[in-house]
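Escalation from tier 1.

The customer reports that the assembly of two entities below gives different structure tokens on two consecutive runs. Tier 1 could not reproduce it. I'm attaching the input and our single run for tier 2 to review.
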Amino acid sequence: MRHGFRQAMALLHSWAGLVPGWLLFAVFLTGSLSYFRPEISQWTRPELPSGAMSDPGRDVRAAQDYLTRTAPDATRWLIEMPLARLPLTGVTLWRERGAGPHYRHDLLDPRQGMPIAARATHGGDFFYYFHFDLHMPWRLGRLIVGFSAMAMLVALLTGLIVHRRLFADFFTFRPGKGPRSWLDAHNACGVLALPYHVMITYSGLVILMSLYLPWGIDLLYGTDRARFFAEAGQNFRPPPAAGVPAGLVDLASLMPEAARRWPGEAVGRIDVYGPGDAAARVVFTVADDARLSHARARLIFDGVGGTLLSEPENGLPGPARLERALYGMHLGRFGGPLLHALFFCSGLLGAAMVGAGLILWTGKRRAAGETHPVAEALNLAVIGGLPIAIAAFFWANRLLPVGLAARADREGLCFFAAWMVAGIHAALHRDAAAWRTQFRCAAGLFLALPVLDGLTTSHGLPVSLPAGDWLFAGFDLAFLAGGGGMAGLSLLSRRNRRRVAK
Amino acid sequence: MTLLAFALTYGGWWALAAGMARHGGPMLGRGAFPAVLAPVLRATGGGLLVLSFFTAAGEYGWDIGPVAWCGLGSVGAVPLVLMLAWRPALAALPVAPLLAIGWWLSGF
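Tier 1 run:
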């Protein structure tokens, strides 16, 4: 009985892991990059002056001036304050009536209050949106990633049941032994970062739960979803517009109140509902880099008189507080660069676990005389091809002409084109030599990136290192480390082949 | 302080691994693994991990601290596993310098 149960779980584990595995590898890798989303957004805009000191009062005033000038008829404004990680002001507007776009997002240089003069790029947003949206229309990508994450949760739980020697093999890795080594690597990457894997998979599902399990909310709230999100502390529901024009309060004059309520913490974002209307509301939200939970403290002001109306977060119900905490943990914006690096490494361990599992699946069957061409080609296309595609994105950012039309989207196109070339190569050759070719190609692309950076910008390693410019120096060093890692993998696969040949 | 927490985690994993029959011999550089040492090493390892938990909580607070501790634990075990695979006897080398530098940087 016990034996039968474990076998059934092993079967479930291998299919729940294999089918979404190729996608999960990509989600883990691009998701890991997303921990450095603001930094990537800065690296991909090398024209920006680095290390600009921000002055919150001035930044808010500049943003309000800009929005009043360009979008006085919008129904909603959002001002995202500059951070140390990305010293730019994000301004977004929504319009429900009148001429002009229904949605617009700009990045302002806080010192001039004008849109930044930098190359058009999606920056870190490209990997961030890919990791749950896959850049697909409608919500298709989110649904596909969601089903994969559910399978991932099943694979994690069944994996724990199938793993017979969790503690005895805790530190075990025996290299150069074919499928045995891949099983060791799969187990070690899974077990060592198990808290991370469970947290990231579960919290990822929780973040989009209203998409995956909408029926409970529909039953209780009907069509009034906004009320659910307001009660869950996820957004603010403004009163209906009065239809009477009234001047908006000077937002900067509300900053001292926020500073008094949140000593030592900065304002993260300012939402303005109905600017120019007598029923306008202004919502200040605290920055998200100091606390674990995403249940961020808010202050709600009357948008005309500037009187403080309420602080709604204190009465959030327990489940909503848990959801906000899981949300905060998934995003991992707290704790500073060291913690971001730990999250990044844990995410890489997740990708390594999935990758080793995929290679194990085909390797074990090949050792038994079975070949699965589609699975083998997909393994190479994803594990070898995605790092090439990521490197291609960074190359495109430096090489595409600054004035190119639709430049930001073409960077993304380069990512997918490189991935497709790697995929075709993988479909044509699935042997060990093809793996080495792709690893070498990725290694070369990453190792040459610091050189390219030095040639095309004024932030090359010889400049950034002595200047203590850790953003650009850090990226160059990370590219060297990544390239070194890929070169190591190509060496390792060559050595293993020799050993098997003997 | 973060480096001290990392040093304690790595040291903890090292002692736990050295207390296992499979790894103890090669790690301690002897032919046969002395069974008497095993419980001592394992208790030391567990103790160091507990210490690193409190160090991380002291650095990051009680909400972020446990998350940081999990991350340090996962990432700190990786170099140990790699060294056990190729150079088990060298795995002990970083323990003392890491602890010393971590202690010094945290200003005790």
